[in-house]
Amino acid sequence: MITKEELKNILIDTESYRIEKTISIDNIDKFSQAICAFSNDFPKSDKNGYLIIGAYDNGQLSGLKVSDKLLLQISNIRTDGNILPQPIMTVEKFSFEQGDILVAEVQPSEFPPVRYRGRVWIRIGPRKSIASEAEEKILIERRLSNIHTFDAMPCLGTTMEDLNISFIKREFLPKAVEEDVLIEDKRSIEEQLASLGYYDLRYSCPTNGAIILFGKNPERYLHGSYVQYVRFRGKDRAGDIINEYKFNGSLCNELAKIDTFIETSISQKRPIPVSVLREETVSKYPYWATRELLMNAIMHRDYQTNAPVQFYEYDDRIEIQNPGGLYGKVSPANFPNVSDYRNPFIAEAMKILGYVNRFSRGIYRVQKELDENGNGKASFDFSLITAFRVIEQVSKKYFESGFGAKDNQNYPETTQKTTQKTTQKKILQIIKENPNITRKELSIILEITTDGVKYHLQNMVNKGVIKREGSDRAGKWVIL
Fold it and tell me: Is 60 helix (H, G, I), strand (E, B) or coil?
């Protein structure tokens, strides 16, 4: 981090490609653009950039008093998921007689172009602007020379024919890039994907990350790229297998199925009496916490091995085990306070698609949700070295008030099918009453995710129960 003496020298200097001074304290959009630009380091100085809050352009201090709230706001820019790949930065407060200064020090990214809300910001001298296509191409070439992670490497032997291009154009690109930028972008789909890190222009093929995320058959090239769910009877693997399933398609398809599977088959909500007049809904395994743990396993796993992510359910717990131990800067001593990414481009795509909300904070919320639901906190096993395991205990609250061991031991094989039938009956009744209802409205009424609604509707369409007439916005559902 910069020293106080170095900061004094910077204050008396003019703004440059490495320095931005401001007296604003609430323009998070402006701060994020500056951090994005420093991360891209377009002049290729390999020097850190400095966002200085609390100083005028001439170096005079504004008299700012830096609060904990402001420190937290600026620090949160790193992990809020709006700047991707995630910037490397530190934030520190400096106090002078004339007032305080808050400094965000930003390191140049090894994986440019870095985007803030889908736009690539750069600095040339004191000027900050959105990169042109030519400038963005320079950043892409720079990233190709810095490739270190497996998901950014070319998947040799593959072509664009191996990717689900329709999904990329329909679902991914509009979320990854601002609409007006995308409309003006006249580049080929290969060049568009290369700008996001999913196509290698040198070898004219998709990257490993692109095959994992959007591939028509990822397992053909990356044999362990699937999630294996098994429900065992009893408390160890010696018990009979009650149910099993293999999630083995591209992540863009399988993540939605996994999300729905956890919500409809694993979570299993039931009301628990709290008082004479009030009930509390408790889940066997809380949906969000379980989903977050499994999504983390998928995001952080080692895709170079032939081993899958293991999602194993027993009578008393769930175990999630992913190949690949703690990565990079993360150790048992600093977990989960420190984060590092084995697959930064897969992590970025999962954020764009909405399966990861904020980086670095999920574990704290997971532990809180598990505790409140009666599961107790999840335990993490770092002893496996080449693998990482998390254990989630079944909720004790779930089996209160007469719901005891009998329910747990006689876990029905048809739980998922029964739950799906119940949900789809409700959807059918709702559509009967309101054929124009939207997926979002169904999601609110049914209290499930929009991905869950999408899954059930498609399932019902495939079975010939309902069909859609007209467009998504102006059309209606018809019961057959």
Answer: coil
In a domain, 161, yes or no: yes
Clarify whether residues 252 and 350 are in a common domain.
yes
Q: Specify if 137 maps to a domain.
A: no
Asked whether the beta carbons of 177 and 224 are under 8 A apart, the reply is: no
The span from the CA of 419 to the CA of 425, in Å, is 10
User: Looking at residue 470, what is its pLDDT?
Assistant: 84
Rounded Cα gap, residues 321 and 381, in angstroms: 9
Query: Position 393: which residue type?
Result: Q
- 330-376, pLDDT tens digit by residue? 889 889 888 888 999 999 999 999 887 655 568 889 999 999 999 99
91 sits in which H/E element: strand 88-96
Same-domain status, 36 and 152: no
Band the pLDDT of 259: cuts 50, 70, 90: very high
Q: Structure pTM?
A: 0.71
> Domain end: 166, 196, 218, which one?
218
Q: How far apart are CA 327 and CA 248, in angstroms?
A: 24
Q: How far, in Å, CA of 305 to CA of 311, rounded?
A: 17
Q: What are phi and psi of 208, to 5 degrees?
A: -60, -40
Residues 6+ apart with CB under 8 A from 466: 428, 431, 457, 460, 477, 478, 479, 480
* Helix, strand and coil in the chain, % to nearest 5: 40, 20, 40
**CA–CA distance, 163 with 159 (Å, rounded to integer):** 8
293 and 404 within one domain: yes
CATH number of the structural domain spanning residue 425: 1.10.10.10
In terms of residue numbers, what domain contains 446? 416-479
CB 399 within 8 Å of CB 407: yes
CB atoms within 10 A of CB 378: 22
